[in-house]
Amino acid sequence: MSLDHSRSFENGSIFLITIALAWLAMAPLVVSAEPLPVSHPRPDDSWYLDPGKARWSFQNLDQIIPVAAVSRGDSQTVPMLYAGHQILDDLYTSPEGVESPLGSILDALEVDGFIALKNGVVVGEAYFNDMQPQTQHLVFSVTKSLVGVLIGTMVDDNLIDPERAVTRYLPELKGTGFEGATVQDLLDMVAATEWNKVRSDPTSLVNVNAMAGGFIAHPEEFEFDTTIGFPGVAR
């Protein structure tokens, strides 16, 4: 396989291997742990549940809720090696028997960003919907995959023991539903915390969590002002 050029990660941008919809793209974004200022508009949930709004919202999150870029620190960037043959022009057959280039399929699926690596070499990269390589993009639960990879490297470096209680590393979780869980429990998503996901119910925990994080508006009398303040309760 020939390599024709390279590019480095810049400004802390994180590239993900993905062919999913818009939210499976790339971003170094986190919701700010600080409470929303009173003057900041409180959004409803249509900005991420309405597909017509989501394509714009996912690339302009800082215009909807407070966000913060996570620095990669002072470590050196890792060059990205590119293969001479890119798979975006390769033909793929749909279940209906129609052949189309991969790039056209991604565009039709309303993907915002795509990158594929094989053996550490980029074999395909494309951006749609005005997205650019440096664009910050919401990734939702893809964050869990990134955290898992980072925890894995820290375990390998003997910086974290996955069998120790998570409160050893995050004492803020003492007194919550996560107290007593190990780091491995959280990586496996088996912590015994109460949860329900009924978006049509304003009192559903998925909505209370979204209110605490500033994703959607909350009542004037609301108990939590950050997601750290609402980390779940024990069953």
Describe this structure in words.
There is one protein chain. The protein has 235 residues and is an alpha+beta fold. It contains 6 helices and 8 strands; from the N terminus they run E-E-H-H-E-E-E-E-H-E-E-H-H-H. It has helices spanning 46-49, 51-57, 102-108, 142-156, 183-187, 205-212, and strands spanning 3-8, 29-31, 67-69, 79-83, 91-93, 99-101, 113-118, 121-127. It has a 4-stranded mixed sheet, with no helix packed on it. Strands 2-3 form a two-stranded antiparallel sheet. It has a two-stranded antiparallel sheet with strand order 5-6. Strand 7 (113-118) and strand 8 form a beta hairpin. It is globular and about 55 Å long. Residues 1-41 have low confidence and may be disordered.
What is the compact description of this entry?
The chain is α+β, with helices and mostly antiparallel strands and 235 residues long. The protein contains six helices and eight strands. The strands form three sheets. Strands 1-4-8-7 form a four-stranded mixed sheet, with no helix packed on it. A two-stranded antiparallel sheet has the order 2-3.
Largest sheet: 4 strands, mixed
Coarse structural class: alpha+beta
Give the overall average pLDDT. 78
Instruction: Catalogue the unreliable spans.
Output: 1-41
Count of runs of 4 or more consecutive helical residues: 6
What is the overall shape?
globular
Spatial strand sequence of the major β-sheet: 1-4-8-7
